[in-house]
Every structure is written in C-alpha cells, then in structure tokens.
Amino acid sequence: MSTLRIAMPKGRLMESALAEFERAGISEKAPDIGRKLVIPLKNGSGSKLELLLVKNADVPTYVEHGVAEFGVCGTDVLDEADCDVMRPWTFAFGRCRIAIAGRPEVDMSRWSAGDTLLVASKYPRITRRHFSDRGWNAEVIKLNGSVELAAVLGLSDVIVDLVESGRTLKENGLVVHEVLGETRVKLIATRGLTRAQNDVLAWMVDELSAADRDKS
C-alpha cells in the first residue's frame, strides 16, 4: 500500500490530535516537526502514515481532493468549506461555541427582516446562511485576524466567531448575544478510499474508540 497522509494544521489542534493518536496506539510518539511540512508518522498498523501540515482552512480541500486520505479539523472549518468528505470520528477535545457577539448595548431584538447588519467574521458562508435563514440582510466583512476588533472599533455591528472561555470577549468589553451552535473536532476522510485504505480508517476509529472506553 502507498503512503497514507493525514492533513492537519500546526498548533493546539495538532498537539491534541497527536496526543490522542499516541494514547490510542495509532502513532508511537509525537514526531519532531521543526519546519517540515511532510513528516513520517510511526505507527502500529503496518501501513505507512505521514502528516501533511497545511493551513487550518485548507485541510478539507486536501482531503476532498484525495491529496490526503485523512484529516483533522473542526466542524466550523468543514461547514465553511462546504466540502464533501466523510466524518467518521469526533474527538473529545476542542469543543467550542460559535456565537454572535458584540458590544453590550447592542439590542438584537430590535432587528427585523430587511434590516442591513454589518457582521464581521472569519466564516462568511456560515454567517450569511444563518442571517439569511432568519430573513435578515447581513453584509459580511471577511476578516482573518482578531475579529473582536471589528466590534470594538465599530467596523461592524456584531461579529460571528468561535468562543471557548469567553475571556477574550470580556477583556475587550464584548458579550455573547446569541449562540448559533457548537463546533467539534473531527477525523475526516476522502470519499475515494480504496478497500485497503478503508481498512486503515476502520483501524484508526477502532483504536480511538477503544482508548476512549479505557479512559472512561
């Protein structure tokens, strides 16, 4: 079997995912990353696995197109990318709320259908869909950095962003006005897997599930 790739971004998500892989016996230990973008992953499956380090938002694209057979990313990224991939496993870590937030004086009850709202977000697709479903006209300002600043400086009426502890919002004088949903971290897979590759996926899910049972 050819080498199988697992796409994931650097940072806390990767550290948590690799810790789960090691605990489940999928990898022997966390590899030395450095500045490498493709890293061999020692494992007990008899298959050749390697990490493909990409930008967070690009994980679903690499997996959907089969450049990486597997990937690890949040449902916020998956929903924003609108990619057609399998989602066979949900990790216990990385749970966040996705919420509308803004200055405390913002009164969302005064908005009505036809109102034009300025909304800053890293997630324009998710944001437009939510406000469209409510019949509100949202002009979405796409930002990649600190979205909170848009509400603080008046660039937008509100923001749509991930909220974990709420500390960043509080320190910037912002509050959550409405929770839209919850995001989770998923193990994903391309739909073009061969039978042998599906066997590796099933092995990974079985090992993760067994490790979770042992933990509980």
Across the major sheet, the strand order is 2-3-1-4-11-5
Q: Please state the second-level CATH architecture of the largest domain.
A: 3-Layer(aba) Sandwich
Please tell me what the overall shape is.
elongated
What is the CATH topology assignment of the largest domain? D-Maltodextrin-Binding Protein, domain 2
Q: What is the average per-residue confidence, as pLDDT, rounded to a whole number?
A: 90
Low-confidence stretches: none
Q: What is the terminal-to-terminal distance?
A: 34 Å
Decide which structural class fits the backbone: alpha/beta
What does this entry look like structurally?
The protein has 216 residues and is of the alpha/beta class. It folds into two domains: 4-94 and 184-215, D-Maltodextrin-Binding Protein, domain 2 (3-Layer(aba) Sandwich), CATH 3.40.190; 96-182, D-Maltodextrin-Binding Protein, domain 2 (3-Layer(aba) Sandwich), CATH 3.40.190.10. It has helices at residues 12-24, 59-64, 75-81, 124-133, 148-152, 167-171, 195-215, and strands at residues 4-8, 38-41, 49-53, 70-74, 86-90, 96-102, 116-121, 137-142, 158-163, 175-183, 185-189. The protein has a six-stranded mixed beta sheet with strand order 2-3-1-4-11-5.
